[in-house]
Amino acid sequence: MKFENAAKGIKKIFSAEILALIAMLATTVAAVALVLATGAADLNDLGLAAVAGILLAVFGIAAVVLFIISAILNIVGIVNASKDDEGFKTALIFTILGIVFAVLSAVFQNGNTTVYSICSTLQKISELCVTLYIIQGIINLAQKLHNNDMVRRGTNLFKVILAVYLIYLLVDILTIVLQATSIIAGTIAIALTVGGAVLSIIQYILYLILLAKAKKMLAE
User: Fold this and answer.
1) Quick one: pLDDT at residue 2?
2) Which DSSP state fits 170?
3) pLDDT at position 194
4) Which SS3 state, helix, strand or coil, does residue 180 take?
5) What is the helix, strand, coil percentage profile of the chain, to 5?
6) Which residues of 101-132 are buried (b: 16+ CB within 10 A; e: fewer)?
7) The pLDDT of residue 177 is above 70
8) pLDDT in tens, 112-146
9) How far is CA 147 from CA 121, 134, 174, 214, 218, in A?
10) How far apart are CA 72 and CA 65, in angstroms?
11) Smallest Cα–Cα separation from 165: which of 135, 129, 140, 137?
12) How many whole angstroms separate alpha carbon 132 and alpha carbon 55?
């Protein structure tokens, strides 16, 4: 049994995630450059400020371009894969919703803070659903191909991503309700944030591994 559309789609999704990872690294460099530029300006160090400014511009622009290419590749990949499994069709719906909420967030960012917060939250939920339904699509294909190892990997990753999301949600609730006024609340929030960050990195690596294995599975 061959799923040629899904094979092409997952290959593009995998490439999109690699580009997104590189874009995140470029964003990190740009953020460091911004800090250096600010510090250099305070110290009146024109040489360092110029170098930091160039790094900020180069890596900032590179990050934006890579994120755009990644988003386009991801959408094209999901569209291709959706021809072979319903899970990817649902992922496509949430992709479109995510774009709509992202646009609304940008519109209300400097205006209605309540609407902005709601749209921003809905955008994050949509992005989560996209990832989960892509994984579900891979699980569905693996079941059809009787690849139990891929079914197990996909199911485990599904649970890990949900766990990470719940941790972030708990951190948000603690921050809003307690406002980190007590030492205990602040300590718990910091611990959960660090734990969530570590789990997020592990989750991302596992997701890339799953996509790579899915690509290999569909190529056989």
Assistant:
1) 78
2) H
3) 65
4) coil
5) 90, 0, 10
6) bbebbeebeeeeeeebeebbebbbbbbbbbbb
7) no
8) 677 777 888 888 889 889 999 999 999 999 999 99
9) 36, 17, 41, 10, 11
10) 11
11) 129
12) 35
Are 13 and 207 contacting, i.e. CB atoms less than 8 angstroms apart?
no
* pLDDT the model gives residue 180: 47
Residues 6 or more apart in contact with residue 147 via CB below 8 angstroms? 217
Residues making up the chain, counted from first to last: 220
Residue in the structure block whose two tokens are 């999704």: 13
**The two three-digit tokens of residue 189, written as one number:** 């929030």
% of the chain beyond a pLDDT of 70: 83
- Using CA atoms, how far apart are residues 138 and 11, in angstroms rounded to an integer? 12
User: Which residues, other chains included, contact 27 with Cβ-Cβ below 8 Å and sequence gap of 6+?
Assistant: 59, 60, 63
Span 64-84, average pLDDT: 93
* Structure letter (DSSP) for residue 147: -
Name the residue type at position 126: S
